[in-house]
Write a structure and sequence with these properties.
The chain is mostly helical. The chain has helices spanning 3-6, 9-34, 37-49, 51-61, 64-94, 106-134, 138-153, 159-178, 190-209, 216-246, 249-254, 256-304. The chain has twelve helices and no strands. The protein starts with a helix and ends in a 10-residue tail after the last helix.
């Protein structure tokens, strides 16, 4: 890192936070106003990308001022989780990128789409009611003020400590992911591995976007692994939704044959998810090579020269 880069980490972090807070705020407005599908996705991604900057801020400003905006971000993600699940399922069944509708004729597919769309509408109404009550839009303002305080307390000299903290955040995310290797004797839940992959990616992109190290090779590998894990997870979630719909007593009583066809579709998805899991395990060795090469560099550097200002990453 050059001196000019080191001296600008806090400014770059403030710019990153402002960008993500604006993304969160503007898309939240769309979601509350119309239930916008893209808005649901974007507001959840922005809220996740703000988590790590808030952890950095807590090392400088204390945990108490961070608690409220972090809670509002978490509330937003939780409120919209089922809405997003159904958006992904409907897009995969019926959208422009539909890939999952094999085995259902148009009338069966239309009936399933209608049932899932009505469920999505119910979840969206509940989510908007919850968001309206808890007012998570206040999170953006709180985060902006915290970012301003960071600019006040971090001078050119202490900016070096902040730079080290950003890199430590990334190092810790890699360490956690190394320990989530799903191939070992201790089998790990791929859902937890998926979350670790996502957090490592966000930490690496944060480090890059504030002008520090650019781990291009590993970031590319993280994106690829996140895609594989994401599809596997989406299929598992989809199986739960369609089987619940097909097994409803009223549906079974009125048209058991339709239920059987939908359950057959879910069974096909389960086979695909199982194949996807095997694919993840097969490609993990190549991914692990890139992961460990990067992690070992950071670990060795940390052991040889541990700078002050480490933060705890939960």
């Amino acid at each position: 890192m050059s001196d000019s880069v080191k001296a600008s980490v806090c400014i770059s972090l403030a710019a990153y936070v402002e960008k993500q807070a604006k993304r969160f705020s503007s898309n939240l407005e769309k979601v509350v106003a119309s239930g916008d599908v893209d808005g649901v996705h974007d507001v959840r991604v922005a809220s996740r990308r703000l988590v790590q900057p808030l952890r950095l801020m807590s090392a400088w400003l204390g945990g108490k001022p961070i608690k409220r905006p972090a809670g509002l971000l978490r509330t937003t993600r939780q409120a919209l989780a089922q809405v997003r699940d159904l958006d992904v399922l409907l897009a995969s069944l019926c959208g422009s990128d539909a890939t999952w509708a094999h085995g259902l004729d148009p009338s069966d597919l239309a009936r399933l789409e209608g049932a899932l769309t009505r469920r999505r509408q119910r979840f969206a109404r509940k989510a908007v009611d919850r968001l309206t009550r808890q007012k998570p839009e206040r999170a953006a303002g709180l985060i902006w003020r915290l970012s301003d305080k960071m600019l006040d307390v971090v001078d050119e000299e202490s900016d070096l400590v902040l730079a080290h903290q950003v890199e430590t955040l990334f190092e810790k995310s890699l360490e956690r992911l190394v320990h989530r290797d799903p191939r070992g004797d201790q089998k790990h839940d791929l859902h937890e591995t998926r979350i670790c992959v996502k957090r490592a990616r966000y930490a690496g992109e944060l480090m890059r976007d504030v002008g520090l190290r650019q781990e291009t090779v590993l970031l590319k590998a993280l994106v690829g692994m996140q895609d594989l894990l994401g599809r596997w997870n989406d299929q598992l979630i989809a199986i739960g939704y369609v089987t619940r719909e097909a097994r409803r007593p009223k549906v079974l009583a009125e048209d058991a044959a339709w239920s059987a066809r939908v359950l057959s579709l879910a069974a096909d998805w389960a086979k695909e998810a199982d194949a996807g899991q095997r694919r993840i395990l097969d490609v993990w060795a190549e991914f692990d090579t890139a992961l460990r090469a990067c992690f070992n560099r950071y670990r060795d550097r940390a052991q040889s020269s541990r700078a002050p200002g480490n933060i705890h990453v939960s």
